[in-house]
Design brief:
Elements: E1 4-7, H1 11-26, E2 31-33, E3 40-44, H2 48-58, E4 67-69, H3 85-94, E5 99-104, H4 112-115, E6 120-124, H5 129-138, E7 142-143, H6 158-165, E8 171-174, E9 185-188, E10 195-198, H7 204-211, E11 244-247, H8 251-263, E12 268-272, E13 283-286, H9 293-307, E14 314-318, H10 326-336
Helix pairs in contact: 1-5
The chain binds threonylcarbamoyladenylate and magnesium ion.
Threonylcarbamoyladenylate binds near residues 38, 144 and 197.
């Protein structure tokens, strides 16, 4: 299969790009498109065979359900049994935007492989002009996970998608780099108080300001097993080729780590804020100003992927403070590092 990447920049390209994308989707093909978080790989959510192509192209385990994307918030009325008040308040506040709401689905509304056999469904209205235009022209719900090969960092540019899925999908809509850079916050509203299943751009604090109590497994001390997580969170994720180790953003600790790696005649890439650019790492990828977590989130996945273009033996990443978007960044970093912290 030949993969076409269409840059959606001027009006002529735009019309052609949307027409082609809608055509492909209606024909039961899958199409990659930008959202404000990361690139998604979409299929019409009622088309079981098309949805199966997503799992196939990504190499995704079939027990990991997909998020359904809508172009208008009120469309979800047709798909779910009820919308609890708290879910409704969050939808009004955060949509379009990086919040996925888990609700009880009306049975047989979507293809069974979308929800991986669960009675619930994750729904979101993305805040990106290309995603919204595509969804509105199509007029149908689109199931879309991130457009990476399973296990790799989510794509924040069309070139990342191309690298992972070239020859596996027919079309990529190229809208440049995505803004947020981390996947949406996933919140389960089928329980009360609602539970954060995956932290993201909409932080626990932002949710609490709208609906009061929210259970955040990252900070709640309940028995691990009793806290539900998104099925996808149990899989290895966001991992570049070289092993990743986390380290506190402390200059002495970082230099000691680099020295001991060099003593073993190994190479090291460092992903850290600007403050660390004088380090002796063989490659340095800047997360921007240490105070600016939004910039860190935006660049993190591209930097993890850039490490795959080096011959580094080890990747060191400094951790952010755990407040705000920092919680989501740390959540992804712990997965990328498989829980490993650097010990000299
Ligand atoms: O920002 C995003 O959410 C991106 C863009 C493309 O929209 N999508 C994305 O999809 O990150 P994906 O498939 O990579 O992650 C979806 C997460 C998985 O962890 C999955 O287990 C969880 O959402 N999920 C989906 N449906 C669920 C459900 N019914 N119950 C619990 N978790 C669900
Ligand atoms: Mg993903």
């Amino acid at each position: 299969m030949i993969t076409t990447r269409l840059v959606v920049d001027n009006n002529v390209n735009k019309t052609q790009a949307y027409t082609q994308a809608v055509e492909k989707l209606i024909q039961g093909e899958i199409v990659a498109f930008p959202t404000e978080t990361v690139y998604g790989l979409g299929a019409i959510a009622t088309d079981e065979q098309a949805v199966a192509k997503i799992f196939e192209a990504k190499g995704r385990p079939s027990d990991n359900p997909l998020i359904v994307h809508v172009g208008e918030a009120h469309h979800i009325l047709k798909y779910v049994k009820e919308i609890p008040q708290k879910a409704n308040d969050c939808i009004e506040t955060f949509w379009p935007g990086p919040l996925t709401v888990i609700l009880n689905a009306i049975p047989n509304t979507f293809a069974p492989n979308v929800t991986a056999g669960l009675s619930t469904v994750g729904l979101r209205m993305p805040d990106h002009p290309i995603a919204l235009e595509l969804l509105r022209r199509l007029g149908q719900p689109v199931a879309a996970p991130s457009a990476n090969r399973s296990g790799k960092p989510s794509p924040t540019t069309a070139l990342h998608v191309e690298k992972d899925l070239q020859g596996r999908i027919p079309l990529i809509l190229d809208g440049g780099a995505t803004g947020i850079g981390l996947e949406s916050t996933v919140v389960d509203f089928t329980v009360d108080p609602p539970v954060i299943l995956r932290p993201g751009g909409v932080t626990a604090q932002m949710l609490r300001e709208v609906i009061g109590e929210v259970i955040d497994p990252d900070t709640t001390t309940v028995e691990d097993e009793t806290v539900p997580r998104a099925p996808g969170m149990k899989y290895a994720h966001y991992a570049p080729d070289a092993p990743v180790f986390l380290i506190e953003p402390d200059h002495e600790a970082v230099e000691n780590a680099i020295n001991s790696i060099h003593m073993k005649h190994q190479k090291v890439a460092l992903i850290a804020p600007d403050e660390f650019k004088q380090s002796h790492a063989d490659w340095f990828f800047s997360l921007g100003n240490q105070q600016n977590l939004v910039t860190s989130a935006r660049h993190l996945y591209a930097h993890l992927r850039s490490c795959d273009d080096t011959v580094t033996d080890i990747i060191l990443v400094t951790v952010p403070i755990k407040t705000g978007v920092g919680a989501a960044i740390l959540n992804r970093l712990e997965k990328a590092a498989n829980g490993n912290w650097w010990h000299s």
